[in-house]
Amino acid sequence: MKISVCFLPLLLLCSVSTGEHDTDAQDVHTVLREMTASLAQLKVEMTSVQKENQAYAARLKDLERQETVVERHEAEINKLKQNLEAQQVAFSASLVAEGDATIGPFDKHTTLIFKHVMTNIGSGYDPNTGVFTAPVRGAYHFQWYIGAHGSNTAAVLVKNTNHIFAAHEQQGSGFGSSSQGADLLLEAGDVVFVRLWVNSKTYDNTNRHTTFSGHLLFTM
Prior knowledge:
single chain, 13 strands, about 40% helix, alpha+beta
């Protein structure tokens, strides 16, 4: 009886102790299962984020390529516009801007400055110098008219430093005029202008008798 009485509390104690350990173990397993599930969910989410980042990076590269293509096309379009503008060349100007004037005579050939500009497509003609500068290589046509009032007059078309054709008018009294024209092959940067011949005079008024005109026929 004593033995029974002595072991009964021990059995009860062991029983209680074992029950507590089982409960703790169950709690730990529950936490581990929850953590495992959370880690698995995190992995799924990370994989999704990585895929989204990869898709974003690919889209970004695609946009960069498209931007490069657009920039290249814009550069080509601007170049085409510049070439087209360079091929649109025409000008026409008369000697005096207002009133009337007799220019000359001079003791040397003198460049005439045609100040009244009617047309200057392409801005090849400079009304401050009287000089036309070819923007592109091509064939150009030029015309110039020289008015005279009671005097002799002559003027020559000049390409760079070379005299091309001359217009001459001998007028003892009253008004007269002379004209000439020429087709010239010009390189880009070549200059063309009209020189009043030495000891000559020319006349102009608001009726625009003395003029200088030119235009591009075609590029080459």
